[in-house]
Amino acid sequence: MAIIEVTNLHKKFKDLHVLKGITTTIKQGEVVVVIGPSGSGKSTFLRCLNFLELPTSGEIKFEGNLITHRNLQLVRREMGMVFQRFNLFPHMKVVDNITLAPKLVRKTEPAIAESQAHALLERVGLSDKADAYPEQLSGGQQQRVAIARALAMRPKVMLFDEPTSALDPEMIGEVLDVMKSLAADGMTMIVVTHEMGFAREVADRVIFLDDGLLVEENSPDQLFSAPQHPRTQSFLSKIL
Amino acid sequence: MDFQWNLVWSSVPTLLEGAVLTLQLTTIAVSVGVVLGTIFGIMRLSRTPLRYLAMGYIDFIRGTPLLVQIFIIYYGVPNLLPRLFTTGIQPYVAALVALSINSGAYVAEIVRAGIQSIEKGQTEAALSLGLSSTATMIHIILPQAFKRIIPPLGNEFIALLKDSSLVSAIALEELVRKAQIVSGRTFRPFEVWFVVAIMYLIMTVTVSRIVSILERRLRVGE
User: Fold this and answer.
1) Chain A interface with B: residues with Cβ < 8 Å
2) CA distances to B49, B163, B192 from B6, in Å
3) I want to staple B174 with a disulfide (CB 3.0 to 4.6 A). Which of A63, A217, A229, B21 is the partner?
4) ipTM of the complex model
C-alpha cells in the first residue's frame, strides 16, 4: 500500500531549479535510501515531503490525501523528521524535548507522555540521560534523542536528512544501529545519506538523484552491483 | 576650593525621593516596554500587513527625540482630545505613557534581533513535530530569544534610567527635577549635581551587575 505518492515534484529557489520533476511512490513499511552527489537535490526532496520547503509545483499525497496548507499540521504529526544538525531544543531537558510535542499536539497526559519518553530513551540506549540538557550530550547521543523525540509522536513515516553527516566517525555506528532496529520493526523510512553500507544492508530500494532528476531506482543489490544509467555508474565508481 | 560636605548630606533625603521615583518610572516603563516590544517585534517579523504598523511605530519613536514624545503626550494629547482629558493629564501618567511607548520601540528591535538569532533548525524541528507556528514561537523561539536578549535589555533599562531625566521638563519630581529644586534653594549646584551623578551611577552599576548575574544563572542549555 502506498503511503506517500510524489508526482512531478518541482522546486525552484529563484533561478535555481533544484528538483526537476520527481515522481515516486513510497510503500508502507518500505525503507528507501536516497543517494546522489551534493547539490543533486536529495535534501530538498526530503524537505518537500513535509513542506519544510514548499514545492514549486507537483503534488504530494500522504495516505491518498493531497498535502495542502490546510492539512499540513495533521500530516506533519505523522511524519517524524531527523535532521543533520539534530536541532534539539537546547533550553529543555532531554525528557522535555521528547514529551513536548505529544503533550502539545496529541494532548497526551503528562504522566503518560513521560513514561513513553522513558521507554523511548531506553530503546535508543539513553535511559540515564532523561534529565540532561542537550549540550551535555555527545553528537551521537543528541541524534539518538532526536530520533526518540520524533518517535514520540508515533509517526507513520520517518524522514532522515543526512542523520550521520555531522557526527564524529566513532558515533556514526550507534545512530545507524538505532535506525536499523527501527527498520527491522517495520517503520517506513526515507533516508538521505552517504552511508552506502547502511543502504546496502537496510534499504528495500535505493533512489539515485542527480541534478534534480530521479535517474535510477532499484533494490540495493541491483543498483550497487549493476547500475544501468551512466550517471549512476560514474557516481558509484567515485564513492565505492 | 569650597566644597560643602554638610550640604551634600542634607540634600540626600530629598534627592533620594527623586531617585526612587526615577527607578520606579524606569522599571514600570521597561516592563510595559517588554510587553509592547514583544508584540511589535513579532509583528515586525510577520509577513502580514501588521509589519508595516510595527515598522511605522518603531521608526517614529526611534527617529524623534524622547523630549518631543513627552511633550506630545503631556501637552498635545489633552489638547487634541479635550473631552477625554477635561483636567489635562497628570505628569506622572504622561511620563509613564511616554517612557513606556518609547521603550517598547527599542525593545521591539531587541526582540526582533533575538528571534532572528535563533537557528532556523529550531523552527523546522518544531514544525516537523506538528507544532503550530504560534506554539513554536511560544515554546521554542521566545524562551531561547529572551535568554539571549537579557544583556541588550539591561542596556535598554540603563539607557531609559538616564533618559527618564527628561520628564523633569513636565515638572515631575524625579531625580533631576528634585535636584533643580534643591540647587535653586541652596545656590550650591556643584554639590547637588555631584550627588545626583553618584546616585545615577549607583543605580546603573547595580543594574548592570544584576544583569550579568542573571545572564550567568540562565546560561544552562546554551
Assistant:
1) 50, 52, 73-74, 76-77, 79-81, 83, 85, 87-92, 100-101, 104-105, 133-135, 146, 149-150, 153, 159
2) 61, 29, 11
3) B21
4) 0.94
